[in-house]
Specification:
Chain A is an alpha+beta fold. Chain A contains eleven helices and 38 strands. In chain A, a hairpin with a 7-residue loop joins strand 27 and strand 28. By secondary structure, chain B is of the alpha+beta class. Chain B has three domains: 215 residues, Immunoglobulin-like, CATH 2.60.40.3140; 167 residues, Roll (C8orf32 fold); 220 residues, Jelly Rolls (Sandwich). In chain B, 20% of the residues lie in helices and 35% in strands. Chain B has ten helices and 35 strands. In chain B, strands 5-4-8-2-1-10-13-12 form an eight-stranded mixed sheet, with helices on one face. An eight-stranded mixed sheet of chain B has the order 24-25-23-22-29-33-32-31. A five-stranded antiparallel sheet of chain B has the order 19-18-17-20-21. Chain B is globular, with a radius of gyration of 31 Å. The interface between A and B is large, with 57 and 52 residues.
């Protein structure tokens, strides 16, 4: 009854406020197939003396501008987890042309969602199919979200898939519950905030009008960074005239995280002690112990994720992880910590967000700020990080997806520190290619020697096959010479999956159908790889920064033996272009019977900012010019 | 007293017989974990494999027909040799489709040192409706490490089906395996082995049971240009209850059903159908147009309602409702009849899954119904939009089919592809060299037949923005990083009076700065980067085991026009002339590549034609086909070398 009343109230309000025609809406958002007339969430928080009861009613009303579906279906969906299940999901097409009145949406059986690294996850996807959705139709979707507690609030995004005429978050709480909040997102958005008392509750309201959605661009920031959102949290609860801090700072978050890790490791640790002894028996100092334990976990514990409810936050018992030989990041961290502890080495739980989560802990001290757990050893000013989920990563090497992020290092029940994960320099991520090229019986042949370090090595070796017969195809595909008509032979490699920081690959190759021989001339490009050739930015269309996963150095040397009977008719010009964050240096020289090309391309940054696009395009343009220049040889 | 003892004896005899009978059931209990935790013997040839299935046992046991139970038991013992093997085996998913109950489940891992970690059904996670693919139960192998063995066994009670195909999707060798089929109470059982699966032998204890032993079964070598799944080892069977039941009678039943419902109509039904037909605007229409109109009418105007149960033609026409798509076949068939168009109904199956044969009564084979029009020699997909008369989905081309015709006859025939003159792709490309860096490209792609049908079907599911994005991506041609300035789409839908030869046209205006290379004063225009070449078989030199399969016959042509810049000439025109053909033993050309050029002053017109007249070629022709395919792939390396025209100082 109450829900019906709220629905009617909202519908009426909508009718009064949003009488825009479809044509008018189309003018505001010309490229959209549908626009949310209203998106609204109403969260009510009540205090039941020992715990807080939270309800969340979600409502959206959508106007259809175009629907190309021949059966006039319009699909929508609701994602949720077992921790915050969505229930009472209803959809309706208002004033349908089929029959009389409103047309209920078809809601099929809910689907489970599993990522490839998951064994099991409690994520669900409920599809909702609106019927008779034609131009001008209004589609209403509403459901309730059961939030397990205020610690599991997630930020409210003002806009999602479709642009929105009005987006609104309302939180009503009892007066003894003090809310905190922050805005996170681009500065270009404006919203209105009001706070008032109503019916004995305090109502907080945030509204944003005419919010355009955005497409996620290739190599662009993710939705977390781009979307305007409100991060909210229960700051304080007043009970018996005493203000009890709830989640008012990073310290509160840390305190909660500590309660989670306290809820594990209850089983007898005999097996942990035994394995610790076995692993560190021959170690003579702490550093060796850390290395031995860390690499043992990397080798012997497989990453398998099972996210179920609160288990998604509490690490599995270290004894279970050891027995099972698998676990997620929390489990692997927990096991590593306990084995180190048994070996007499202190270490610290750490929480960190991956690069797609754009928050600092100061900006967002709720649980949505991070999604990964690792370990730290060391001491003040010299913390070293251990991420065992990085199966082949070198000791203390942070994987690229957390570099640059803040880590919350828990030093004790109340003590913590925020540490920034350093970003590799470009030189740490090296792709070095030294190739010797010559001609034999009219066929171009050569020997390549490739060295990869850092995150580049990591990316390649994760996929590197162990079967000999697959290695050739893998190298040809990923490190191919010029084109896929290369035949590879005498392949040698080392450093693959050995948890060091560099790997080497060498092989002979022969290339048919490369270059041209026309009359008495030969034409040959010495650029067998062409980094960044497709990274020129369309400034007229691009809205957001351009991102790369890692900074790197491409160090490429080609030595070409001039075939007998030929001389150089044309050698490409040397080029050098240098900007603050990227540069290249290309040179050719003739040394005896050889032409030597040196090419160095250095990308020092992971982000090309919008105000740097013109410089970047100039850099890429010059690089492409150099790729287009070929060597010309003339028969003597 | 005597009678009392006699009853006891009979009673005891009854008990003993019952016990014996019971012992013959529940075959799954015969297989269990090995007694020892020592690692099993591995054939030395498998020591370098990532994993080896030391034992792979499957038992299918029918406990009678009708509502009785089918039990499936699976037992596996797997040695894990490497991380890759571990990755592949440490998570197991059991599909729950058709499963009534899990009767038995246990798993254990034996480490190299003999330590055992056990699991039971409490370790099963239940996943409901995983992304629409149905329910699964999943488990992870606890304690798994390289060098150890995974041993698991589970038994399922299934909803019984009369036929089944068990495909061995093994990616690793099977050292020893066994397949058992037990069919209590069945009177006829048909089995068929495929692709090296051994023939089933009768179990020696005389029950209705058969078995086959496997030894050293290698995984299928995955080959390019092949339908790999049909070549996997498999065993299929069908269970029938009547003593007269044979493959022939089962197909006869199927045929009779279809004939009676879909091809035999009463006078009043035909009268009703005629009345409906006369409302169609088809007085001037050709047979092809009539067929397309009837199909469109049936798909657009007739709804499927699962709560409706009528197959009666009168009511179908009256209420415009059918219980399933079978009902639409009935209506289409009746309308073809009143339109005076002779038609046959074809039952067939997906060739990428299994071969089709009516020698065996395997109903799983049939997953497609088509119409065939013998006078026109064309096939019709009765339900799939954008597949007009002539085009069927490529998974059914060259597959065998069971044809049902009037009056009351059947035959067995290959489903032929449409003639390549009616299914072709034409690319018309105009290139303009703007300067030594940039090339403008005007590109028109015209698709007829199979490709047109697939694109039209795809675009029907995309909204405008998605179509625009798709066209832009298509234009970009990653190897040349083209900038797409404009994309247009024409004829993305078909009306009933269109035929398959109405082309779907995509036009692009693009430019690229990665097509031209410069060497001094000379320019190299890498036109090959633009071409949609065949995937090569450069490195695939080993003997071929599977037939060569293409999705459909190919008939593709390029016409490339290039305005040669002033004061330049093309130095390598002779490289534009190519011809390679494959002719079979009967002297018929099967496939080829031909290219040539014309030079009209400074306009170069370069024409390329690629063709395969069939979609399937035997493995013995592999080298010849490979030569043609590689020549087509080599088009990627085509370049025009432009050299300045040297000034003639004699003037």
């Amino acid at each position: 009854m109450k829900k019906t009343f709220i629905l009617l109230f909202l519908l009426q309000f909508t009718f009064l406020s949003f009488s825009q025609t479809t044509e008018e809406i189309e003018k505001i958002f010309p490229n959209e197939d549908a626009v949310d007339i209203l998106r609204s969430e109403l969260i009510i928080i009540r205090d039941y003396s020992s715990n807080l009861k939270i309800t969340n009613q979600v409502y959206s009303k959508k106007r259809i501008i175009h629907n190309d579906n021949p059966n006039h279906y319009w699909p929508d969906h609701v994602f949720y987890s077992a921790l915050s299940p969505s229930v009472n999901i209803e959809g309706v097409t208002l004033n349908s042309t089929i029959g009389k009145g409103n047309q209920k949406a078809y809601i099929p059986e809910v689907e489970s969602m599993i990522e490839s690294s998951d064994l099991y996850s409690d994520m669900s996807n409920q599809e909702v199919y609106f019927l008779d959705a034609t131009r001008g139709s209004n589609l209403v979707l509403e459901f309730d979200k059961n939030i397990n507690g205020p610690l599991f609030f997630t930020p409210y995004s003002f806009v999602k898939e479709h642009s929105c005429l009005k987006s609104r978050l309302i939180i009503r709480c009892e007066p003894n519950i003090i809310l905190g909040w922050k805005y996170h997102g681009p500065d270009s958005y404006q919203f209105e905030f009001t706070k008032k008392e109503t019916d004995g509750m305090v109502e907080y309201k945030w509204e944003m009008d005419t919010v355009a959605t955005f497409d996620i661009e290739t190599n662009g920031p993710g939705i977390q960074e781009l979307s305007p959102k409100i991060i909210f949290y229960v700051k304080t609860i007043v009970r018996d005239e005493k203000a009890i801090p709830f989640l008012d700072s990073i310290a509160s978050l840390h305190k909660w995280y500590r309660t989670l890790v306290k809820q594990t490791n209850y089983k007898s640790k005999q097996s942990i002690n035994e394995i610790a002894l076995e692993i560190t028996d021959t170690c003579s100092n702490e550093d060796e112990k850390i290395r031995a334990v860390f690499q043992w976990v990397q080798r012997n514990i497989k990453y398998i994720n099972t996210s179920i409810g609160l288990g998604g936050f509490i690490p599995d018992d270290c004894v279970d992880v050891l027995r099972n030989r698998y676990g997620d990041c929390k489990a692997m961290t927990n096991l590593t910590k306990e084995i180190l502890k048994a070996a007499g080495v202190d270490s610290y739980y750490c929480w960190v967000g991956t690069v797609d989560l754009p928050y600092t802990y100061a900006e967002n001290f709720t649980s949505s700020t991070d999604n990964h757990m690792i370990l730290a050893v060391g001491s003040k000013d010299n913390y070293k990080l251990l991420d065992a989920t990085n199966s082949f990563g070198e000791l203390y090497k942070a994987p690229y997806y957390i570099q640059g992020k803040e880590v919350l290092i828990s030093l004790g029940p109340k003590d913590f520190v925020i540490h920034k994960v350093p970003i590799d320099s470009a030189q740490d991520n090296l792709l070095s290619d030294k190739t010797y090229l010559y001609e034999e019986d009219g066929i171009l042949k050569g020997r390549a020697q490739i060295k990869l370090t850092g995150s580049i090595k990591h990316t390649i070796e994760m996929a590197f096959p162990l079967k000999e017969e697959e290695v050739i195809d893998f190298i040809a595909e990923n490190l191919k010479k010029a084109n896929n008509k290369a035949l590879l032979d005498h392949i040698e490699y080392s450093g693959i999956k050995d948890r060091t920081d560099s790997m080497n690959i060498a092989y002979d190759f022969s290339l048919s159908k490369y270059g041209q021989t026309v009359g008495d001339k030969k034409y040959l490009s010495l650029h067998f790889t062409v980094p960044f050739y497709d990274d020129e930015i369309d400034i007229s269309k691009r809205k957001f920064d351009y991102l790369f996963e890692i900074p790197f150095l491409d160090d490429y040397d080609m030595i070409y033996e001039i075939p007998e009977g030929y001389q150089i008719e044309h050698m490409p010009a040397n080029r050098k272009v240098s900007f603050n964050d990227y540069e290249f240096d290309l040179s050719y020289e003739k040394v005896g019977s050889q032409i030597i090309m040196h090419r160095k391309i250095l990308l020092k940054t992971r982000r090309i900012k919008k105000n740097d696009f013109e410089n970047w395009n100039q850099f890429v343009s010059e690089l492409k010019k150099s790729y287009r220049e070929v060597l010309v040889l003339q028969h003597i | 007293m005597k009678n009392f003892i006699k009853h006891i004896i009979f009673f005891l005899a009854f008990i003993l017989v019952s016990q014996a009978t019971q012992a013959q059931r529940n075959r799954w209990k015969a297989y269990d974990f090995k007694d020892t935790t020592a690692l099993d013997y591995i054939d030395p040839q498998y020591l370098n494999e990532d994993a080896v299935e030391i034992k792979n046992i499957k038992v299918f046991e029918y406990k009678g027909l009708g509502p009785s139970t089918l039990q499936k038991a699976v037992y596996k013992l797997v040695r894990i040799n490497t991380d890759i093997g571990l990755e592949d085996y440490n998570k197991v998913a059991i599909p729950m489709y058709g499963v009534k109950k899990i009767v038995d489940f246990k798993v254990r891992f034996i480490s190299p040192s003999g330590k055992v970690t056990s699991m039971d059904r409490n370790d099963l996670y239940e996943i409901d409706n995983l992304e629409g693919y149905g329910d699964f139960k999943v488990f992870a192998i606890k304690g798994a490490e390289v060098g150890g063995e995974i041993e698991f066994k589970y038994t399922l009670n299934l909803y019984p089906s009369k036929s089944h195909i068990e495909i061995y999707y093994n990616d690793y060798p099977i050292q020893q395996g066994r397949f058992e089929l037990v069919a209590h109470g069945a009177l006829s059982v048909y089995v068929k082995s495929y692709n090296g699966f051994p023939e089933l032998e009768v179990d020696s204890d005389g029950r209705q049971a058969w078995y086959a032993d496997l030894k050293n079964v290698e995984p299928l070598k995955i080959e390019k240009y092949a339908n790999n799944t049909p070549h996997r080892m498999k065993i299929s069977y069908a269970i029938m209850g009547g003593s007269e039941a044979t493959a022939y009678t089962e197909w006869r039943k199927k045929y009779t059903n279809i004939y009676n419902y879909c091809m035999q109509f009463s006078k009043s039904e035909l009268k009703k159908a005629l009345k409906l037909y006369q409302t169609f605007p088809l007085t001037e229409a050709t047979d092809e147009q009539k067929i397309n109109y009837i199909k469109k009418y049936c798909n657009d105007s007739i709804s499927i309602s699962y709560s409706y149960s009528e197959y009666n033609l009168h009511n179908i026409i009256r209420y415009k409702m059918v219980p399933n798509s079978y009902g639409k076949i009935i209506l289409q068939s009746a309308l073809f009849e009143v339109a005076g168009i002779e038609c046959e109904i074809v039952l067939t199956g997906d060739k990428t899954f299994a071969e089709f044969s009516t020698d065996y009564p395997f109903s799983y084979m049939v997953n497609k119904t088509l119409f065939y029009f013998p006078i026109l020699g064309q096939y019709l997909e009765p339900f799939v939009d954008y597949y007009p008369l002539g085009i069927v989905q490529t998974d059914y081309i060259d597959q065998e089919g069971y044809f049902i015709k009037k009056p009351s006859a059947t035959y067995y025939h290959n489903i032929t592809a449409v003639d390549t003159s009616r299914t072709k792709t034409e690319y018309e490309i105009q290139l303009e060299l703007v300067d030594e860096n940039k090339v403008n490209i005007e590109w028109q792609s015209s698709y007829r037949g199979y490709w047109a049908a697939q694109y039209r079907n795809l675009f029907a599911y995309l909204n405008r923005q998605e179509i625009n994005d798709y066209l832009e991506d298509k234009g970009k041609r990653s190897s040349v990083n083209a900038i797409v300035h404009k994309s247009e789409l024409f004829n993305d839908s078909l009306s009933w009076n269109d035929s398959i030869v109405k082309p779907l046209i995509i036009r692009h205006q693009m430019s690229s700065d990665m097509l031209v290379e410069k060497g001094g004063e000379d320019l190299i225009l890498n036109i090959g980067f633009l071409l949609r070449t065949q995937a090569n078989l450069y490195n695939e030199e080993e003997e071929r085991s599977q037939d060569i399969e293409l999705k459909s016959p190919i008939n593709k042509s390029y016409t490339i026009e290039f305005e040669i810049p002033e004061n330049y000439q093309i130095a390598n025109l002779e490289e534009l002339i190519e011809e390679v053909k494959y002719t079979n033993e009967q002297g018929k050309v099967q496939a080829g590549l031909e290219s040539n050029y014309e030079l009209n002053e400074n306009l170069l017109v370069y024409r390329i034609s690629e063709y395969f007249i069939k979609s399937s070629y035997p493995a013995k022709d592999y080298e010849e086909i490979r030569t043609v395919i590689n020549q087509m792939a080599d088009l990627k390396h085509k370049s025009l070398v432009l050299q300045p025209i040297e000034n003639n100082t004699a003037n």
